[in-house]
Amino acid sequence: MINLIIGKRGSGKTKKLIEIVNETAKSSKGNVVCIEKGNTLRFDITSSVRLCDVDEYGVNGYDTYYGFLAGICAGNYDVTDIFCDATFKILGEKDFDMITEFLERVSALAEDSNVKFTFTLSCDEKDISSKVFTFAKKL
Fold it and tell me: What is the CATH number assigned to the segment(s) 2-138?
């Protein structure tokens, strides 16, 4: 399952993500992972959440980001939720065709690994292909 938090810059996407991450950490029967670009969330996310800064791992672009997510799922059978902030910053570009393809791949990964993914997308909802909403839900 994929959840999306969509909104323009400054609309409160990260704040909403932080609230959901911390609530999920309280109820999860496994491990919760939060992925960010830079080191901005460390004081807002509860310490029981695994916080990953993609800059430390050289992650940028669609294929490397997908591989990073797949690696987390493959290496950690106990992960229940992965939260991803600043998606377009990590990807390096706002290509709405590529984001559709990327999220479709992640949707298959979520189904295979039984991990729930949540992404923040800094854009207008109308920019996102309607195809995305066949396998992702807007929060």
Answer: 3.40.50.300
